[in-house]
Amino acid sequence: MKKQLKNMELFLKGSNFYKGIKITFAVLMPLVVLYFLGFTELAPPIIMGAFLNATGDIPGSLKRKVNAILISIGLTMLITTIILFLKPYTPLLFVAIGIITFVVSLLSIYGFRASLVSFSGLLSMVIAFAIAKDTASEIFTHVALMGIGGLWYLLVSFIFQKIAPNKDENQLLSDTLQLIGDYLKLRARLLTKKNKREELIQQAFVLQTQINEKHETLREVLFTGRKRSGRSHYDEKHLLIFISTVNIFELVEAKHLDYNEIDRLFLGKKRYLKAAKKLNKVMGNHLITLSELLIQKDKLTSKNALLKALTRANSAITQYVEDVKLPKAREGALVLRNLYDYQKLLLDEIRAIRRVMENVTDASKVSFKRQDGSQFLTLQEYRINVIFQNLSFKSTLFRHALRFTAAMIFGFTLGTILEIHNTYWILLSIIVIMRPNYGLTKERSKDRVIGTLIGAAVAFGIVLLTQNVIIYSVLAVISLTLAFALIQQNYKSGAALITLNIIFVYSIINPDAFQVIQYRIIDTVIGAAIAIIANYTLWPSWETNNLKDVLLNALKKNKNYLLATKELYHDKNENQLNYKIARKEVFLAISNLNAAFQRLTQDPKSKQKEFQLIYNLVTLNQTMVSAIASIGSFIMNHNTTPVSKEFDAMILKITNTLQMSCDLLEGLPIEKKTDPETIADAQEKLLKTYHDLSLSRDENIEKGLTKMSKKTLHHLQEAYLISNQLVWLISLSENLKKATGRYSKVFVESNR
Fold this sequence. Notes:
mainly alpha, Methane Monooxygenase Hydroxylase, Chain G, domain 1
């Protein structure tokens, strides 16, 4: 019960519920005011304008938000005008539906915010079918009032932003901390759950993608907002927390361990890993608690559990060495030590977040330059030629636009021929359900139908119990607020609440609510069926055939990240910014690859061609990022020795192999640029450095010098980590080249 109450508190204090209240206020206030002024007939178009243009109001910079809403207002007014004038002319109406659907759906090539503006435009087209205006004067008046409604919503959005300026940022940071906490706990399970690793790795892909999406939105909010007025105290706090979440994510990524090696070293000795596993869980749970406190604004909980878990992890290393004995214990002890050092760095970042949340004085200053921050933004290109570049069957969004247009025309034709009541509800279902890939369309169809059935069943029960208009009105307002609050979090619940709202609104106008329920269910099922069938049969976009560009980008960003890490090793101070930019870009590239793989898993089994090969490509790319991040993280957080020429030679070998993989995908001739003997010598010398340090350490132990200086420990760790990670990276790059070659033969060459 306590947990449910806490979840309720988090929901009511969160930005999603706040947005629900904002949209409900924007929709209801014109009705209330105009009712008391005696101009109730003016309310519907104003309400419609406010409702339609609320879609583009998502977290981000104020400038982009205002631009999106203004474009949405213009688009919805134009489309509504066209449909209202052409309604009496059926042939022209069909042409208009086709052109509007195709052109407006193509706007989504400009990114997520543009796709929401596109959705507003399509929604306005469908709703226009429910509007009865006969003369030009009536149409222009209606459209003008819609524009006023859109501007009214923009004003409401601005006022609500001023009332709670940090609501979205707090929610984004809270969601990010929770996701990272879940990710840390999942990585803890990966350490010992040998039989569940493949399943856990696929779950990790989803979390990585979600974390990167949150980071991208936070970059836009924190680095583009309030440029003219400067950063406030809250901005400073949020920026510090964000930087810590990025550091934590990199550290977690940097410890993508060679689990086969872990299994070999700790065969029959998994008990020594339990303390490290427990520490990860404690840190993950603590981050989740901090995420909740960001919303609740309560006092911080004690950090004692964190410190105790860290102490136990350190003690486990000592116990391992005492039980297994040196030198046999050295390799396992170094693995545990490197794991402990990484977890200690994680704990430092968590404590940094705590200091910010506690308003500690020395935690309120950010040395991060705004001009540096702008380099981390992913800029969206808005040139018109982007559309022309996508006018090809090679473009997934072009095929989606054609498919979507065909589905809409078919739905309208079917509704017209069969004289289905409220045909526009079929079109509405197609708009909200249909997505570029089959898997998501199928999932949304299922959620939409189930949500509609649940909403209809609840509404049916309430209508049976009472015919009170006041109760209907109250429930309509509550369901509207909750629907907007939940639609992004839980689409099924949102669909149920929207159905409730529509039925209660119709029940106020029309006493025959049962007829509304019946038609709502039928039209939703028809729309969902059309969306699924269209996605499966019309120019389908199966992910196995769409991975080339995403995979190529991941390989290129991996190569750039490796080169940036090499430069970081040479000069940490000079090359730190370039390293961080390369790190951000490769994380996004891998996130996109992970997302593509998730879409692949949602496709029908018969369309998941070469599934295991693609899974291997995704995991190899992911593992390569982690191996590079492991080197970069060590360099960033330790004083390192001078870079050897052997290190540079092996980096050159790995980058050349990655370039060969890129060439295979692009169909370019392959050229070997490194001498295998030279690489073998470099590898042997690097490993010799570690073995020499190990021998020296063994000799000291034999002389009774058991205590080791921190400097010697770091040198031993550096030699072990650098040599082993480079050897591993060479192996990974070779495996990537082989897998890419097989992928190229199966998919790329066959499509030429």
